[in-house]
Amino acid sequence: MTTMKAAVFKAPGRIELVDKPLPQVGPNDALVRITTTTICGTDVHILKGEYPVATGLTIGHEPVGVIEQLGSNVQGYVEGQRVIAGAICPSFTSYGCQDGVPSQDGGHVGHGYKPMGGWRFGNTIDGTQADYVLVPDAIANLAPVPDGLTDEQVLMCPDIMSTGFAGAEAANIRIGDIVAVFAQGPIGLCATAGAKLRGASLIIAVDGVDERLRISRNMGADVTLNFREVDVVSEILRITGGRGVDAAVEALGLQSTFESALRVLKPGGTLSSLGVYSSDLTIPLGAFHAGLGDNKIVTSLCPGGKERMRRLMNVVASGRDDFGALVTHTYKLDDIVAAYDLFANQRDGVLKIAIKP
Amino acid sequence: MTTMKAAVFKAPGRIELVDKPLPQVGPNDALVRITTTTICGTDVHILKGEYPVATGLTIGHEPVGVIEQLGSNVQGYVEGQRVIAGAICPSFTSYGCQDGVPSQDGGHVGHGYKPMGGWRFGNTIDGTQADYVLVPDAIANLAPVPDGLTDEQVLMCPDIMSTGFAGAEAANIRIGDIVAVFAQGPIGLCATAGAKLRGASLIIAVDGVDERLRISRNMGADVTLNFREVDVVSEILRITGGRGVDAAVEALGLQSTFESALRVLKPGGTLSSLGVYSSDLTIPLGAFHAGLGDNKIVTSLCPGGKERMRRLMNVVASGRDDFGALVTHTYKLDDIVAAYDLFANQRDGVLKIAIKP
Amino acid sequence: MTTMKAAVFKAPGRIELVDKPLPQVGPNDALVRITTTTICGTDVHILKGEYPVATGLTIGHEPVGVIEQLGSNVQGYVEGQRVIAGAICPSFTSYGCQDGVPSQDGGHVGHGYKPMGGWRFGNTIDGTQADYVLVPDAIANLAPVPDGLTDEQVLMCPDIMSTGFAGAEAANIRIGDIVAVFAQGPIGLCATAGAKLRGASLIIAVDGVDERLRISRNMGADVTLNFREVDVVSEILRITGGRGVDAAVEALGLQSTFESALRVLKPGGTLSSLGVYSSDLTIPLGAFHAGLGDNKIVTSLCPGGKERMRRLMNVVASGRDDFGALVTHTYKLDDIVAAYDLFANQRDGVLKIAIKP
Amino acid sequence: MTTMKAAVFKAPGRIELVDKPLPQVGPNDALVRITTTTICGTDVHILKGEYPVATGLTIGHEPVGVIEQLGSNVQGYVEGQRVIAGAICPSFTSYGCQDGVPSQDGGHVGHGYKPMGGWRFGNTIDGTQADYVLVPDAIANLAPVPDGLTDEQVLMCPDIMSTGFAGAEAANIRIGDIVAVFAQGPIGLCATAGAKLRGASLIIAVDGVDERLRISRNMGADVTLNFREVDVVSEILRITGGRGVDAAVEALGLQSTFESALRVLKPGGTLSSLGVYSSDLTIPLGAFHAGLGDNKIVTSLCPGGKERMRRLMNVVASGRDDFGALVTHTYKLDDIVAAYDLFANQRDGVLKIAIKP
């Protein structure tokens, strides 16, 4: 076989399934046959033309599959092995990577930093919504799937769990913390699970969809608030006796959620932001205590690499939570245009869709 | 003697020297006879009515003096001892204090957090621009001055060094970092010194006054930039070869310095903010990498307490830098209205004024 | 009433219940009427004369009770309030406390550090195995019990949970870590629960008593090893594929457990030690990689203070684990000599005994 | 030219200069022509047969040179460029590297951890005391030398500065700390400089050679103690008023220095160990406060990689200290046997010897 199906960006509003030649495998690459992938909110931004990518680029960045072919420098794996790779595929060797921010990998030209530079699949190189994907810097990024885990169980690892957990990790949660998580889409749900994994003793989940709030309780939320029904800021201040929360995670990317997250923080608290914003943000003077509140605002891009994936799959294997439950629908790759339509319009209670080539 | 001189806030634009009764010493207090104090930029905000305090309140929060009388619970000191106290005087016993943010001490009513609650001198209780000051929670806040150090040498410890160093500490500087410090007033100069103390190998100091830039070189700056002469953002990006700085310290409190600090950060870098802002802030989408740059924005309020003061005085004693050199003028307490006039108008190259009762 | 019952140390091997006068309440103290207390392994060391205390000292350091009388400086509480206090009661105001190690509080004479100086109950002042206890520095140490929690549920907070969790916290556990906990007495069981609360995905619990291993599974252990049945070091290396664990918690205080914990660490791993040792320790050259393994050995003394207690009671209230289940027996204070006999000889599957005045 | 000179281990007590073929350059390698290298204390252990390496292996791990030839995968460099590489050359891509301990790199077989596995030059592959050296994983390890720095100035970066600074970094030094550094050989001198770079305000340097103590003052020591003249432990406790030091760095590898470092620590203090030990260590019960002192013992292996080297060379370039001054002697590679004789016997005040092919 020399060609494959791939979902490519054609123009704003148009993602199409096309035939593409199988990629050539360079010395540091691995060719992976996709068995399951999924659609991310970022892909919808691409579909709508809000995040520009090259015409004809294959979209998608969440691969589960089987090693088809290994480059000459890629040791420690065998063909036929089940693997995943992170949505972010850093080289881990550049200055930026060695400096502790691999997601901002700028490669080996210049100084080694580039904003979001570690995100390559479906952004700067062909992605995973296809029969095959070429994994760059494969020795750093291919993570074998432990026996006994299904595709659906590990499908959240490349992006959703890694990002959501990063929100909890960057919030520097301590045992006994009170944490609020704004928005309970797939990433927010994983931030909720992450807050529980770090030891928060009271987790307040916020969303506007009751079904998502119901699921958030399974992921660790102790209290749920529907912003369509209550004033979330005053309600959280009431629950905490006026103290505020130790940490707030923003998982949507709007001024309103960012600002609410800031307004419910205790002095000394941390706002951990995961959302992708599309306009300038305003920091209200009062909520920022004029710059004297010992507050932190931290942002995180999805951590990648095989070690991160190994850890996340171990969390899945531990049964601490059922991350496979976030998969609400399954589509064939052939039907991906319909899957985009369902997902972009958030119909039918969709959280994540398993796409099967 | 039962009365003393004190500089009090009368009305916007009016600070006056008046007679006040000597304060009564409660069980946890210490009465300190001031030998030297100084005027802070915050005091000028109070003078102008931009930061509201009660009419008749004694202003000032930077005490150097001698213990006159100790409360019944205050052990470990003797009357006649030379001491300083931090501008911020936390109890260290409240929930907020025990939780790691003593500057946000909310006391023992409610949950123990209050924005800037540790700042009491010249804010919520009578301050230090007087013959005497009552130090609350004295056992936690009185710091004996090591032999051999002059008043001028330790006068920067209560606020200027503590705040400036906190800016460097919160920036999480590592050996070999490149750091930019925006504004080289007294606090910015100490942030520059702090960046050097934490191991930065290239410190870029920014200001609009050449004399301050000259002094910044003595405090550790390797490169100085006058924003009246160069485009600071593009110049810093040029100096760093497009990489940006590991950390930027904001030491003024304006949108322009905040925004420039953000624009020169590498992906993954930290903006450490010290300034007191007077309006909402805008985070530009691009400089924030849409929330995906692994950046941090951290704010710090001056750390207080006798242990902090002990450490800072040890730094002074080590001779690592000459912090006494920041004192450019000396006035009698009787002439404090003239001292405010000089300081508020930044005439005559003034940095800090020693006020002597 | 002017006298009370108290269990005091008489001589090695003899703890007796005697009558003592009710203590006088100083300005910073609170008198607490004990409703429930318990016996700790440390108390058994005292009983046996292995840890010297003054003859006639009241033993015990785990108080649950009701405020009977407040000192004149103790604000924010009311008499009749249900409270606990930590086993360690720091002042939080000394140099050592402000420097981040309140358990090593040396008070206000000298430099403010003293090894284990924060431990006062039943060590340097009268303890909690009595009708009443005087809590020093009460404003920093009295923690109100949330409504709805029983004495038994919060009885683990003052020492057992605080110490056990500290073992997990000091181990710097990250999401996805593999952690081994050596010994599953009450503190080891809480270290196991703490490892889960911090996000470990594989927790290996080690003990020689099957019943304790069974309970450890309820607290979060994924794998249990009985050292009477297997070679623990080789078994852990086998389970981890030769890699070793990210962190090992020592919760007993013997050379053998210390050494095994070191031998199962990955290069770069952390040994978090909680045990009270009674002889010099040996670090084997090989297990220490000749000092080049990037390893850490950290020790922790039980953190105290009202903020710590507040957080731990919130964990109890969250229902994350059933810490009340560690109470296996209940005795009247009048029968405390029999309780010591049961506990010291570890009969009848005893874990913790609720002692009721 | 197809052959080169190389200093190889022949047998215990015998290092000889021999002819070897030039190495073949693999796709991830770079061939570097050595312009300056040096001898390390570890090399003397190898010479004496105390640390076993293969017969015929080229010794040495501190390269300064010029790129002669680049492997096919090595981008971002040009032949003829002046470079250094760290003594430790991790791949940065293995599990162990991505997990934050690159010096313990176990490669891509098994789990990716191996004690000291990142140390390859002169240990598991041919080293730098030769005309040429093959740098593995070159893209991660080649660090260009900034213009204007001499070979001697950057010769300390690959090992001495990186290790010494790591001792200060791992000690978690804060502004105002008191730090003791035991042994003032080249690494101890750099630990002293590192302690100053991290903000220590009182650095106590210990050694038995007055000349080294004199040099330590240039590197930042405030107080020097000759252990042949004073009881170091009691003297440090006297200097600190009985409090002890915040951190102690061990830079020799003996029980006596390890134990003294522990004995001078404050409760809560950190012992940062750099030495290579050759026998089991004993932790005295009292100095360890029976395991209850909130102490830390941390070990560090020299950090490597191009980012670390870049930072260290920037420190050199900043002129903060004169690290070139540690080079006390210069020898031709042809005379390396004589150089070993001088260095191993510590004659003539030798600190470091520049070896020139």
UniProtKB/TrEMBL annotation, chains A, B, C, D:
<dbReference type="GO" id="GO:0016616">
    <property type="term" value="F:oxidoreductase activity, acting on the CH-OH group of donors, NAD or NADP as acceptor"/>
</dbReference>
<dbReference type="Pfam" id="PF08240">
    <property type="entry name" value="ADH_N"/>
</dbReference>
<feature type="domain" description="Enoyl reductase (ER)">
    <location>
        <begin position="10"/>
        <end position="351"/>
    </location>
</feature>
<dbReference type="Pfam" id="PF00107">
    <property type="entry name" value="ADH_zinc_N"/>
</dbReference>
<dbReference type="InterPro" id="IPR036291">
    <property type="entry name" value="NAD(P)-bd_dom_sf"/>
</dbReference>
<keyword id="KW-0862">Zinc</keyword>
<comment type="similarity">
    <text>Belongs to the zinc-containing alcohol dehydrogenase family.</text>
</comment>
<dbReference type="GO" id="GO:0008270">
    <property type="term" value="F:zinc ion binding"/>
</dbReference>
<dbReference type="InterPro" id="IPR002328">
    <property type="entry name" value="ADH_Zn_CS"/>
</dbReference>
<dbReference type="InterPro" id="IPR013149">
    <property type="entry name" value="ADH-like_C"/>
</dbReference>
<dbReference type="InterPro" id="IPR011032">
    <property type="entry name" value="GroES-like_sf"/>
</dbReference>
<keyword id="KW-0560">Oxidoreductase</keyword>
<dbReference type="InterPro" id="IPR013154">
    <property type="entry name" value="ADH-like_N"/>
</dbReference>
<keyword id="KW-0479">Metal-binding</keyword>
<dbReference type="InterPro" id="IPR020843">
    <property type="entry name" value="ER"/>
</dbReference>
<protein>
    <submittedName>
        <fullName>Probable zinc-containing alcohol dehydrogenase</fullName>
    </submittedName>
</protein>
